[in-house]
Amino acid sequence: MDEIILIAPDSSKSIISILMRRRSVRSFGKTGISLKEVSELLWAACGKNSDWGGRTAPSAGATYPLEIYLMAQDVESLVPGLYRYVVERHVLSLVTKGNPARELSGACLNQKTIINAPATVIISADFNRTTTRYGDRGKRYVYMETGHCGQNLHIAAESLGMGTVMVGAFKDEEVKKILGIPEEVLCLCPVGKNEEK
Length: 197
Ligand SMILES: Cc1cc2nc3c(=O)[nH]c(=O)nc-3n(C[C@H](O)[C@H](O)[C@H](O)COP(=O)(O)O)c2cc1C
Description:
Bound molecules: flavin mononucleotide
Low-confidence stretches: none
CATH superfamily: NADH Oxidase
Number of domains: 1
Order of helices and strands: EHHEEEHHEHHEHE
Radius of gyration: 16 Å
CATH class: Alpha Beta
Mean pLDDT: 96
Helix content: 25-40%
Largest sheet: 7 strands, antiparallel
Strand order of the largest sheet: 1-4-3-2-5-7-6
Structural class: alpha+beta
CATH architecture: 3-Layer(aba) Sandwich
Shape: globular
């Protein structure tokens, strides 16, 4: 009941034409998004693409410090709430029901795009997974991985006629408290149908 099985990804888009069009998108269509769209976005961001557990985004020493969450406001088949993307099984696991978009937007220096988006992908990290292996240098690896994952998400959004923007301006502790998650939040990426074209 609290776990949603996601839809397997589809292939067949030219990466070059997608990269030519990519822009940050901050205003979204009024309609919600489908479970298929959410499934592809999350899988592209950091989904599993090999039997041994390898993912779409590289990870220093395969330590995989990132945890991806979805704050769903208007997504088909999902009650509004915060979900964790379980990479290993390509499912969403409900963390908390509710819609904290307004508080989140406030903690992101009042960026309204968080309120207007039907969903927001949150990239967070457990730094220990990487720093226990690489020491202090592991921190920079985690930031690099956030970039990989974020860019994957931008490319996937563009390929689906959707858009996103990396929101890095926010109050760390406030966002963490609103979401109630143990990991450190590194960026928030509101997603939705691209209204800017
Ligand atoms: C690390 C990082 C943090 C960013 N933070 C924000 C943000 O808080 N709000 C926002 O609207 N855009 C943010 N952006 C998006 C940039 O403003 C945007 O990438 C830049 O203006 C270039 O435009 P383009 O992405 O359309 O090419 C951020 C981008 C990066 C890479």
